Amino acid sequence: MKLLANRDGPLVYRQRLATRLTHWVWVVCLFFLLLSGLQIFTARPDLYIGQQSGFAFENRVLSIGAAFDQGELGGVTTVFGRSFDTTGVLGVVEDADGNFQMQTFPGWLTIPSYRDLATGRIVHFFFAWVLVGTLALWLVASLVNRHLTRDILPRGRDLAALPGDIADHARLRLHHRRSYGPLQKLSYFTILIVVLPLMVATGLTMSPGVNAYAPWMLDLFGGRQTARTIHFVLMLALVAFAAIHIAMVLLAGPFNEMRSMVTGWIRIDGKEDER
């Protein structure tokens, strides 16, 4: 399996300064956004479809809670009406003393680690606006230096080569090119141009203040509760992307990959066609 770059390959300058700076700001932002977002979610650990949560009707698609079964407390997670025992993970977790207590997520998964909605909202909104500003900065810089059109935007030849690139990744035949491969382009385009802007838009749709100035956003996303559900699903997609991204960095040679995102220089395969 080809996991590491050819040591005889040339060093090429691949990552511009703006790309590197915004990348590391996003790492920090997404970390705090995830953990503070889960803190906010614990205030109402349910997801619905529509404008409002159901009282006289049922429109819930996810619920995390606790219930007693034969006198024992257990965590219960319900997805589309089907319930699962999630004791120790969701709904009922183990505290520092080894006792089980009703809590949506373990303390290490939230900021703060204890129930504090106000602090969670402050942290979440601060890093959300930092993310928005950084995303705007990246977009402008990437248009100016052509990083977006040259390296991110998938072209016809990339789509044609995508099946082969997916097969190479599945076999862990990881290449080190001067430019991004087809799967990288499609992944980065999806995250940067689709997922992150949608995260921002759905987050704004949940704000009553924004609703007053732009009520059309509620119609666009099918209601505040639907926007909240989409926001949560996009968060899961970002977590999955981050996990796969880190795994690929480790498999492809972490020193070479980290050097690329710190200094901009990466060693490509010796026989790589320098496009």
Automatic annotation (TrEMBL):
Q: Which residues cross the membrane?
A: 21-41, 122-144, 186-210, 230-251
Q: Where is the Cytochrome b561 bacterial/Ni-hydrogenase domain?
A: 170-264
Q: Which GO terms describe its cellular component?
A: plasma membrane
Q: Where in the cell is it found?
A: Cell membrane
Checking Pfam families in the record gives: Ni_hydr_CYTB
Q: Name one GO biological process term.
A: respiratory electron transport chain
Q: How does it sit in the membrane?
A: Multi-pass membrane protein
Arranged from A to Z, the UniProt key words for this protein are: Cell membrane, Membrane, Transmembrane, Transmembrane helix
Alphabetically, the GO molecular function entries are: electron transfer activity; heme binding
InterPro entries per UniProt: Cyt_b561_bac/Ni-Hgenase, Di-haem_cyt_TM, Hydrogenase_cytochrome
What PANTHER family does its record include? CYTOCHROME YDHU-RELATED, NI/FE-HYDROGENASE 1 B-TYPE CYTOCHROME SUBUNIT
Q: What is this protein called?
A: Cytochrome b/b6 domain-containing protein
What organism is the protein native to?
A: Aureimonas flava
Q: What is the lineage of its organism?
A: Bacteria, Pseudomonadati, Pseudomonadota, Alphaproteobacteria, Hyphomicrobiales
